[in-house]
Amino acid sequence: MARNGLDTMAERLARYLAGRSSRRSALARLGGWAAAIPAFPLLPVWRRDARAAAPAVPSPFAAKAQVKDDTKCDYWRYCAIDGNLCTTCGGGVHSCPPGTHPSPTSWIGTCFNPQDRRSYLIAYRDCCGQDACNEQNCLGMDGDLPTYRPQANNDIIWCFGTGSLLYNCSTAVIVGTAE
Amino acid sequence: MARNGLDTMAERLARYLAGRSSRRSALARLGGWAAAIPAFPLLPVWRRDARAAAPAVPSPFAAKAQVKDDTKCDYWRYCAIDGNLCTTCGGGVHSCPPGTHPSPTSWIGTCFNPQDRRSYLIAYRDCCGQDACNEQNCLGMDGDLPTYRPQANNDIIWCFGTGSLLYNCSTAVIVGTAE
Amino acid sequence: MLADRRSRAARRIARSLLAATVLTAISTYKPALAAEPILQTEESDVVTLPAGGPHRVLVEDGVYRHSKDGRVYVVDLDTGRLLGMVQAAYNANVVADPAGKAFYVAETTWERGNRGKRHDILAAYDPRTLEMVADIDLPGRALITPKKPDMAIGADGHYVYVYDSSPTNAVHVYDTALKSVVRTVDVPGCGLIYPWGNAGFSSICGDGSLANVQMDAKGKPTLTRTPPFFVPDRDPVFEHSPDVRANGHVWFISYSGLIYETTLGTQSSVAKPWSIQEAAGLKRASDARAPFEVTWRPGGWQLAALRARDSHLFVLMHKGTFWTHKEAGSELWELDLKTHRLVRRVPLAAPSMMVGVTQDAQSRIMLTDEAGDLVVLDGADGKPVRKIGALGDALIFTAAPGE
Amino acid sequence: MLADRRSRAARRIARSLLAATVLTAISTYKPALAAEPILQTEESDVVTLPAGGPHRVLVEDGVYRHSKDGRVYVVDLDTGRLLGMVQAAYNANVVADPAGKAFYVAETTWERGNRGKRHDILAAYDPRTLEMVADIDLPGRALITPKKPDMAIGADGHYVYVYDSSPTNAVHVYDTALKSVVRTVDVPGCGLIYPWGNAGFSSICGDGSLANVQMDAKGKPTLTRTPPFFVPDRDPVFEHSPDVRANGHVWFISYSGLIYETTLGTQSSVAKPWSIQEAAGLKRASDARAPFEVTWRPGGWQLAALRARDSHLFVLMHKGTFWTHKEAGSELWELDLKTHRLVRRVPLAAPSMMVGVTQDAQSRIMLTDEAGDLVVLDGADGKPVRKIGALGDALIFTAAPGE
Known about the structure:
Number of helices of chain A: 2
Mean pLDDT of chain A: 75
CATH topology of the domain at 96-228 in chain C: Methylamine Dehydrogenase, Chain H
CATH architecture of the domain at 96-228 in chain C: 7 Propeller
Structural class of chain A: mainly beta
Largest sheet of chain A: 3 strands, antiparallel
Order of helices and strands of chain A: HHEEEEEEEEE
Low-confidence stretches of chain A: 1-55
Number of strands of chain A: 9
CATH architecture of the domain at 61-178 in chain A: Sandwich
CATH superfamily of the domain at 96-228 in chain C: YVTN repeat-like/Quinoprotein amine dehydrogenase
Mean pLDDT of chain C: 91
Strand order of the largest sheet of chain A: 3-6-8
Strand content of chain A: 15-25%
CATH superfamily of the domain at 61-178 in chain A: Methylamine/Aralkylamine dehydrogenase light chain
Distance between the termini of chain A: 38 Å
Distance between the termini of chain C: 65 Å
Number of helices of chain C: 2
Largest interface: B-C, 52 and 52 residues
CATH class of the domain at 61-178 in chain A: Mainly Beta
Helix content of chain A: under 10%
Shape of chain C: globular
Oligomer: heterotetramer
Strand content of chain C: 35-45%
């Protein structure tokens, strides 16, 4: 019954990098892990030729999102964030505040940018090493699944591999398009 | 220049038990440590025969104090307390909440009881081992001196000898009269 | 006047001597004339709680803003008083022994606060003295904003289960008699712990199935799987679905409001789901395939609580679209799990992320609000009983006796 | 599907492999077509601060309600932005290197949070990366609700001094070049640290005198005492009396409002005191001998701040009796220390326990309030500049460049 180590690792890796899907429905934001163990994944698919048929606004969050102020909860990338915005804690939208470290792993959401009307894969990388930065706290729930689907859950402390796993704030990093 | 260990210990002990004074002024609440190193102290002097000439209300706090509700900041014994009332944290006026431990040492204030119009020596013994109990927080300043007079200072964490020195709440224990 | 640097040991000795002397001095002092109208001198002591009743509950405070200082409060719902607290550091979990003999906290610290060696800890407490009766290091634990089913206890209190996920999904089995972890059971692709019987638990798997683990007398586990009974991408079930650990009965609640009555065991069985909204005379709510539909939906953190004696379920409900499953409830809906009918809708004075209920005849409902209050309602009619103001910072779940 | 219990080491290895793999995968990925109107993929990074100006300050948050999680905030007063934070656990203290090369935090942790081995720590930080450049254990430190003079740094930044009091009063001398404690100086009967020059400090003693410590080139200390210059029982001087560490100038402020201008050194000299209230055209305030007199009095926590360039003192004042020395100020009084005259009374929008000031020509005044806001006023006229809302829980003191 035991599984070999590489399989297990590949499966775990798949979870952390999950969210690969070319479907244009709301389901696109949900990870592909449950479907199967994929071949060793590199990065999300990036299909430029699907650009012409951009999806309609895919979620209630996206319908109200803005693209100008990344220190506010309704900024488009924060459709599935849970925690303190690093942009208000001394960091940036993809930068950790000084004195903290970005988690090399993260969970992945899919957010719709109302400006170019594309959906992007967003890695919510936590910045770790100091206790909570208590500036702007936000909770986006688009596509957030329970922890039995860890790749799509925003309650897990995504601080693996950063030394101490104390959670300070969250970034929202574009890692690909979701088309 | 070195002092022998016993002297130092005696001096420290004196600080913790300080406040011995038979003067009936507001000064009575201030410790006797600075005056000299006393003979090895036992407990505060208790002079019954001074009873007849009880002092007038000795401080602004005492003038407004009440004797009925020990969960309120204006309870007479809290004239010089600083912190969370153990009476609101699962303890009592001289009892620590379960899971915490009373400090064997404390600082000493002198509070006036408006009911019997006597002044008592009050040991503010901290209860230690859990982080702050955040119920009723009070700050009495009667006779509170800076930390260079530790026996009369309410900012020191009086948790020596209790394992961890995390401060949970404060009790106000009658240890003698101040007459 | 100048002494040179002294050893720490010497200071320690001096300190303990000092402490001992002062204690002795104080405790041998007695007032000479007890008849005098002078307040007696007192000795310091520590409260030991009397045996608790059904309204003495545990409330976990996640303290999100200062998560190193999470704690568990012991609260008397009848007086509204805080009876004591223990540390529950950094995304901790707590479970109570079914017979009330102890409670257990799984927590995590680093030796230098935010750095240094990590300790994943299981601490056991005497519920009357709140003194630790065990304090061991676990092989690890999952660091997740705490959900109740990240930790569980068997029906007879012998095993405590602690969920781990770094890096593989596993459950550490702590033996409360031996005071040590006796087994780690891998549950690949699955998470959370819903206990059944004395030595069994089930986990929810990423494909919508259940993994059922039974341990034999030696603690050796056997795992079985059910077929998938829900589609996680479309309408996942909440982690905080309420259960009765003694008989392994769980009512899994989905984001859209479906209830899957489940009997756990080596062959867990799941009944056909029914809709909370339909039970209330409304239309069944949409799932992720129609996310824009606004209707009453379940949501919150500990969003549901079960009163086993009459099979009543209390669920926090709010009006919103799909993907609002963590929104605080503006109403509390009471449902009869046997008849699948709504008993009552209780509008809340303030939105609540949490609901708990005591199991006794005069049951009490517990809610919270943004200010960290613990709001107590009468379990019979949902009427307000009292508000325990500012009990904590982020009250996230409760544990009531016998639940 | 069941794997038996695995060793922790194996999990660790798997975990680090995993992390390394993911990092590599991400960092080698580059967008193929930069010209396309598609938002570029990004890499995660960590902010390094540019060199700071005079308005980049440190603010200590004592977090009284969760004191294990005290912290020091780095704040830009011009933008009102939080630039970063570092841990400052349990009654910590912070001092900044006079040239801005580093800052130092003295803090205390227990390995299991509220229990286990205690660590008294001195951590040094790079002020632009907020990375630790030293992290050593101290022989001990005093656990006191933090006052600024519980820790100090010499004028050239070579020595950092940490006050200890358990059980004897002593000062640990940390050598910032050697990154270790090189000396512990006992100051029996005295407390607090007011530095002067590169290798000297004074402490206030319980009888109202000063102890002056000078260390020679080898760090060997010599101690001298001044005669008492105040009566502590009657009118003690505040711990948070402001100083200029470079030249050892301190203005000791008494509870009643007397100011003792003092030049520290091996032979510290104290000038005849003058009254804040008299400087404002009022009557000199009573001391402990007449405690009921209600008048304007100094009070708060960091209740006074000094702007060295024009010798202006800012003091928080409130109306009250004696024994109200920790009451928050309802006005800020600005005094000229050379002429002993009141410059300005600034009524505050909310009472403040803390005042700080920056040392530059466009100086800023920092205040706080019950909500943990950092309120910024113009140092020229006391007019509001901005409010940094809810910066922390209990802002207790500030450290501005060059103070």
